[in-house]
Amino acid sequence: MTQNILSQLETAINNSNYTVALCGSGCLKECGLYELKSQEHAYAIESKYGISPEYLYTSAYYSSRPKQFFDFYKNELLTPENPPSPTSIALAAMEKKEKLNFTITSNIFNFPQRAGCKNVINLHGHIYNNYCTTCGHNHSVEYIKNSDSIPLCEKCGRAIRPGVSFFGDMMDNALITKAIEEIEKSELLLLLGTTLRSEVFHHFLNHFNGHTLAIIHEDEDVSDKNADIVIYSQPKKVFHELGYI
Ligand SMILES: [Zn+2]
């Protein structure tokens, strides 16, 4: 990470009238978490549960094998300590200083909001929303964690569903529309821990008409050449250099 590229990014941030950040799996990786689909973890999960995350983390599995589903879900996704990530703390600081207008994340830990960002879309929902499929009552993560086996609604005793998108679930149309609107408005788009070929974000990126597309990601990708600024580093390190954390 050279000083030159950092000052280019800093200038882009300072000159932009509307900045949107997209947070991908790299924002998990930099704080020791991972995406279920990442190859190395998919293999580890398959060895542990005898079934791949592509089948485990689906509505069909949740409905047909709730006990096994919640064993997996509690062990793998409801980790004991889960403070907001450094990058999300930086995004909240940027938002407060009016250097960031909106954050769109595919991660399910609600980091940006928990760090203090106000304008956020959790494209895939988040683990803090656990609703009763019958009466709609919401339950805390602790309630899910502390339930013996299959968590049931404390009001009506029916099934609780984690408010996250499982693999193969349709994304909420209202969220997609809002995400597209935000990307269309942006002059500066920050891709944090993700690439232009991201499975989640690439559909949205066609709607970008702004002037600067910046990628901050550890892993190189062939599509990086289409960005204006590319920094091969963890987003948290870049934000630290820029003084946001
Ligand atoms: Zn209920």
Structural notes for this entry:
- The chain is elongated, with a radius of gyration of 19 Å.
- The chain has a domain at 1-33 and 84-124 and 170-245: TPP-binding domain (Rossmann fold), CATH 3.40.50.1220.
- The chain has a 6-stranded parallel β-sheet with strand order 3-2-1-7-8-9, sandwiched between helices. A 3-stranded antiparallel β-sheet has the order 5-4-6.
- With 245 residues, the protein is of the alpha/beta class.
- Helices cover 39% and strands 16% of the residues.
- The chain has 12 helices and 9 strands.
- Zinc ion binds at residues 132, 134-135, 137, 153, 155-156, 158.
Number of strands: 9
Alpha-beta classification? alpha/beta
Q: Tell me which CATH architecture of the domain at 1-33 and 84-124 and 170-245 applies here.
A: 3-Layer(aba) Sandwich
Largest sheet: 6 strands, parallel
Rg (C-alpha, Å): 19 Å
Count of helices? 12
CATH class of the domain at 1-33 and 84-124 and 170-245: Alpha Beta
The CATH H-level superfamily of the domain at 1-33 and 84-124 and 170-245 is TPP-binding domain
Q: What is the quaternary state of this protein?
A: single chain
**End-to-end Cα distance:** 17 Å
> Which whole number gives the mean pLDDT?
95
Taken in chain order, the helices and strands follow as HEHHHHHHEHEEEHEHEHEEH
Runs in which pLDDT lies below 50 for 5 or more consecutive residues are none
Ligand inventory reads:
zinc ion
According to CATH, what is the topology of the domain at 1-33 and 84-124 and 170-245?
Rossmann fold
β-strand percent reads: 15-25%
How are the strands ordered across the major sheet? 3-2-1-7-8-9
Helix content: 25-40%
Question: What global shape is seen?
Answer: elongated
